[in-house]
User: Fold these one by one.
Assistant:
Number 1:
Amino acid sequence: MKKVKITKLIRKTHLYLGLVFAPLIILFALSGFFIVNGLDKSNKDGSYTTPEFIQYTTRVHKYISRCIFKDSKSYEKMLNSEELQDNCYIFKYSVIAMSIGLVITILMGIFLAFKYSRNKIILSACLLIGCALPTIILVL
């Protein structure tokens, strides 16, 4: 295969994988945002009631551990939906596929960025900062 055909294949694969997995990534990002900001918990005094949309969305993060650790008794109280238990395998494999697809898509995106950008110094700096941030967060 010529270099042009390989690059075109990478670009198309990157595009389609991005479109397939973007909705799942957005769902996890929203769910994480709601949880981190405490929007998933109603106040006991009734001053804030969690909207149903947020309750439904945050179940993705809250109950995934129940899907993965089916025999753990500590998660029994978390599960409040029989439907969720039935969908655990589908969800688990969707997350695995999303994770693999995301990594592949990101690597393709980095490749394409370096291939088509003229200023590789700025790209390298951004990538270095992007790698340093999670490392710093994990260490702290």
Number 2:
Amino acid sequence: MIYFTKQEKFVVVFLAGALLAGAGVLSYRHVSHRAAGSSGTVSPSARAEACAASGITRVRVSGAVLHPGVYEAAVGSTAFDAVDRAVPCGDADLTNLANDVPVTDGLEIVVPRSDSVIGGTPDARININTAGVDELDALPGIGPHLAERIVARRRTAPFQEIDDLKNVSGIGEKKFAALKDRIRTK
């Protein structure tokens, strides 16, 4: 009978795991390559056919919604159905949403905000509690990664006042000073 030391057992288990992981990667590449065709990419028409066969389309929803992202929708669903799943904000302007047109795979829906009016003039400041990553990214000094951090922070607790933005990692006094006149919480 063969006896292994603790160190030898570790090496055998490690090699077996590496072998299995390698086999899994090769299998995945083989399957995805076959599904994608010889070019390695899926053509839009092939994706449309696959979606029609499965009865599912993918739609990206952004703008004045609480949960921007990519949503799966049944073939025949409307833009309103997709926006409803993303939860429209209170100031979302849904009047121009095509309620009778079915969504197609790869469609991007940007929900506009209605004009908020304070004291008779439109309020152009961005609401940091409802703005999507794209809107936050448009602010000076805010890139996509910092915009993601802002969205992640407000998921745990909405911003009560604009000063709460300083609690987000990456926003100090200097950056906040550049933003304070361009943002709001309500």
Number 3:
Amino acid sequence: MINDHGICYNRYPCYYKDDAKNCLYDFDDIMDKLSIDYFLVFGSCMAAVRELDFILDDNDIDIAIIGHKDMRHKLILKLKHNGFSIGKTKIINNVIKQVHVFKYGIFLDLFFYDREGDILVSSKEVYNKQYKHFKIPCYVEFYDRMFRIPYPLEEYLRSIYGDKWETITVAEYKGDK
């Protein structure tokens, strides 16, 4: 959303659930049309599994896309054509690695990973999670649709949030509390 001063601001999915759901549905429809698989990751994955809802104090929806280097520009154009605004984009060696997009004031963080053996390389030097979490898709029903999530789920969430993944808040994880 753009305020009266021309500054973009974010609407938290947990407070604007209909907008967040519509944003995710619109994204899902585009990905389906392009035949690109993706995963809910980080706080969005934890929220879908643990809360069956958007999680309090998480300010975006996190998406992981593995591979598809040749489709990344086409995806961004398709998102823009379908009403998404394109924000900050990280490009390394002419390859898109991360894009912030938003619609209805809801941010989606798209993380693109390239597989190198059993390691996923992202916009950071090396994503230190093994590819194994993304080999076998697992699904969760979230707002009446099925979404891919990493597997084994608990191992994945523990690798990010530790043993308290079942109770930790995003603010606690980020050190805000």
Number 4:
Amino acid sequence: MITKELIEYMRSEMTKGTQIANIKISLLQNGWVEKDIDEAVSAISLNMGAVPAPAPATTSAPILETKSQGQGSAKKIIGIVIAIIILVALAGTGYAYYTGYFTPLETVSSDAFKSLSNTTSSTFDTTIIIDASDLNKAGGDMLGELGNLISDKITITSKGTYDINDADSFKMNSAISLAVGSVSGSLEFIFKDNTLYGRLTKAPALSFIPVIPAEYINKWYSFEATAENAQSILPTSSIGLGPESMKNLNTEQKMEIARMTGDAHFITIIDKLETESINEVLSYHFTFGLNNQGINDYLAKLESYIKSEGKNDSFLSSFNTKDISESLEKIQNFKGEAWIGKKDHRLYKFVISFDVPTGDADEGTIKISAVSIFKDWNKPLELSAPANSVPFKSLIEQSLGEARTKGVDAQIKAIISSTRADAEVYYSEKNSYKGYCMSDPAGLIAQGKGSAIDGEFTCKDSVLAWATSAKVSDGYFCADSTGTVTDTPKPATGTSCSK
């Protein structure tokens, strides 16, 4: 929204001779949106010859004041997301040394973890469901616009394959779908030869999101990346360590952390169930719960080791696991179920579910569940890069260029349109249009001063008529004394707009 404070600040800076581009940068850094800034520039340009004296003592860009809404809820939801990542990492990839009532399953589960050290590829099928309907009932409009959108639940499904056999030639493909209430969307991505390819296969239909043109659907776009960045989306060999931390560790340190993870006790086996085949692989089947004490013991050891080894590295020295511990404490009603192959002791399926209260008892609870199925362990992935992909960088540059052009055109058209009123004011004073083109603001425009029009500008006047025109991206824009305001193929050649 354009405010008086914004206009006064911009006029003050223009009077000092500050370039508009620099004024814009300062405003953007202080929270103003580009649309409001451009509209303010246009409004000031309409009064080019009458820039008032600057408002008193405005020495820095005004800060856009915004109300903070739902900060507590946002922090809680961030905690929930952290909890999801931890649980998917621990159960979804088998990074656990299971403890419990059945000794044979301890050995089987330990083997499932240890087998990951020689795992190079796998096919996965994962669905996560986040049910926030209880929040809408208990918390009313606590989630605001998002709460209205999420009528029941969010469902995220990811299916694909990855191959890390060659560290310098990481490969992966995945299809991801998202359903939010009655709204859904989907996309695919491929990583090959240090390039990430992505395409939107179904665009969500939302009233507050602009309609995505059909030519952008099902079209592959490419992004420059590295194998290291791509692999960061895969679970690491340790719970609690993100890809940035792992990058700062050497091979020996990573191996020690993997050993610590293998010795940790993350879950407790609850019940042994009948064996069952998953993708034609006969598997041990059991239920499990979280071992919070075992997890916290592991996190404390991990933090101590990272800080000790990274005492000369500021990033590693700042490492802490407090947020993870606090997120785990919020988890309620956790249930887990796993299937591990009888012959190869590899993880083939897991199911987890848990609740996370968002705060006070009357604010409601978010229910989260996840199912992951794996197959084709260590089966090489054959993958081809999409043909005819478009570099995403060039798309952004093209879009920004088009947006700038449209913005400049709009300003030019507004200035030309405003000359009608200026000309009538001149006529009321002189009883003639003759000389109008030499007066302000038309004269200033012609000299290229204080206006968005820095290209071709034409102004013609006579006693009884006048016309102005300026170059825009697709031709010319013209106004004249007959009341005409229109796009034209060529500039005004007399005191009327060209046909």
